[in-house]
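Aim 2 progress update. The chain analyzed this quarter is reproduced below.
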Amino acid sequence: MTLSFFYNYYIIGRIIFALTLLISFQMTELLNKKPLLFFILIVYLFIAFIRIIIKNKYFLYLDFFIDMIFITAILHYNINTYSFLSLFYLFPIFLSSVSIKSKALFFFPAFASIIYMVIFYMNEITFSNEGIINILLHSLSFFIIAFAADAMRDKLDKQSKYIKTLEEEKIRMESYKRFYRISADLAHELRNPLATISASVQFLKEGKNDPEIIDMLSQETTRLVNIANDFLIYCRPEETPKEEVNVYDVIKILLAHKKIEKKIFFDFHDNVSVMANRTYLEAAIDNIIKNAIEAANTAVSINIKKINKFVFIDVEDDGSGVDDSLKDKVFEPFFTTKKSGTGLGLSISYRLINSFGGTIICSNSKMGGARFTIKLPLYQKT
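Predicted structure tokens:
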């Protein structure tokens, strides 16, 4: 992360640097006096533009070498007039120290010190006290910037690890909060039928053998069983056996086993399959279709289509729809607008579809009601 952050600016900065030199040297007519300098700038610009197009980490260290050699070539022709250009050695040294391991920390500052010394030799500059001090000060600055960059990298790495730890802790705390909330909702859902069952048992103990009490006891017991079964499905293990499942066959079988008094428009563009657990996929789609049938006034539309590498199942109804403020809550456990029901149906569907690598989206339907779109990866034979 640290490397990519600095390097994205660096690859652009090197082009700006070369263009600035090209314009500056042209304005001072230096390029007319030294045509080879113009050739060096053009070659370097070409390489810099190529590296923007071809971003390969294996060429990273080569970039540092090229930059240092380029700066050396510029200094070689302008050591007496533009000696301040030696400061630009610090940029490749800094980035190399940020990106490479500590064991190789000395390599690039040492390389820069050597080639800077070579410039003095090639230009036949006398190694006087002033020249030696110049070289030593430059070498010292090269190593200082390398150490500073290495220390900064260590600090950034520690901060990155600390932030990652905080994020993991936040996710863990959010999961705990979600667990506590679901547990509280579950306790609330269980408390009402248990209270009814307890009162009914008390009436039976008192000898009040009323058929209404027996029916109430049966209904609340069934409700408890449904809540327990649905909650077990919701808390199912993430990993379940998966197989190729034909989506059309699943929906056709689900519709065949339902007594439907409303119109069903079933359309499919492609006979497609997905990789999923058939039992759980049936449960997920069945909950969506059942909700649509219950919410519809007269008709439900079910459409299967394939787009790129995904299968889309659209289930729409002509009912009253879902209020915009509730669209983010419909997949939460125990959330329901119905008088009866466990409030787990849509949350179960959402969890199961997610476990197969898919998603469910709730939106408005052109039919006037709600539209639930299931998106699943298309099964592809290898």
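The mean pLDDT is 79. Strands lie at 243-246, 263-268, 273-276, 299-307, 310-317, 359-364, 370-377. These observations will guide the mutagenesis experiments scheduled for the next reporting period.
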